[in-house]
Amino acid sequence: xxxxxxxxxxxxxxxxxxxxxxxxSQSKNIVIxxxxxxxxxxxxxxxxxxxxxxxxxxxxxxxxxxxxxxxANLSGEQTANVGSQDMSVKVWLALATRINELLxxxxxxxIVITHGTDTQEETAFFLNLVVKSDKPVVLTGSMRPSTALSxxxxxxxxxAVAVAASDKTKGHGVVxxxxxDIHSAHAVKKMITTPVQTFMSPMHGLLGTVSFxxxxxxxxxxxxYTLNSEFSVDGVxxxxxxxxxxxxxDMSPDLIxxxxxxxxxxxxxxxxxxxxxxxxxxxxxxxxxxxxxxxxRASRVPTGTVLLHGEVVDEDYGSVSSMELNPQKARILLxxxxxxxxxxxxxxxxxxxxxx
Length: 356
Hints:
Elements: H1 2-25, E1 29-36, H2 58-63, E2 73-82, H3 89-103, E3 110-114, H4 120-130, E4 137-140, H5 153-165, E5 174-178, E6 181-184, E7 189-190, E8 199-200, E9 208-211, E10 214-217, E11 242-246, H6 254-262, E12 266-271, H7 279-290, E13 295-299, H8 314-317, E14 320-321, H9 327-340, H10 346-355
Parallel strand pairs: 1-2, 1-3, 3-4, 4-5, 11-12, 12-13, 13-14
Antiparallel strand pairs: 5-6, 6-9, 7-8, 9-10
């Protein structure tokens, strides 16, 4: 009897060891690329709102999250160290190039990017159009610095790694993981100034949720992205200047002329309502498009579609409707389009805004 018990225990031990070995061998290799932001911020007080972005290194952030290394084999790189209000095309190009390099190898299964929240949706949308892989790329951050009471950064990072390591995430393009929610790069918007529930996807809804590492997806993202996108960063050193004009009552039409004189190669108008603007601004827009400067009509309204044939008929003014894209994302798509073809027709530009 004792021999049978011993043999049973031995068998169980062998099975457990084998299972642990299999689990480890199947563990995903995830690279975390840090860019700074609030998640890496530190302040003098745990209850104050003042802090400095990018004070905590990526290795320190990883080490501060309990059990995160059980999710995947992790390594970290400090790609940049800025508050996201200072995010730039230069950083975007470096980030996209590094992501494509890493994901082209068999040694990397997914990417997590720590990023400030102010421009996180813009970085996500840019990467969604230029990353050339269907492997997971996940952006995360926090609304509270690491020194704050109830800082949510550690759990956001834990969940982001879980999403990047999940087989379910493949083929969903670039996603944003914040506050237990999974958003598509196309749909996500920062909607509130400081609360942790700042990110929402009002047009298409959440892609999914992640609860303490448990990942669930509801649907695939809208539009073309990553491997299906026609855009690339290969050989790209920069992008044409595209400016945004903010619409308001009695807006000044000369702002468009000023931007063109300053070197803008394209303009996005954050119009009122359905991408509308004053009669004088409409004429200034028509003058710009007649002189070969593409103009995209977006809206300052948080959500909705800018109609192709609403109060403004774009064909009459040479303009393009941004469709669902808010002004900041419309700017990115226009930059990419003009870099690819600076003589792109209005019709071709409108087609891009319908597809992406």
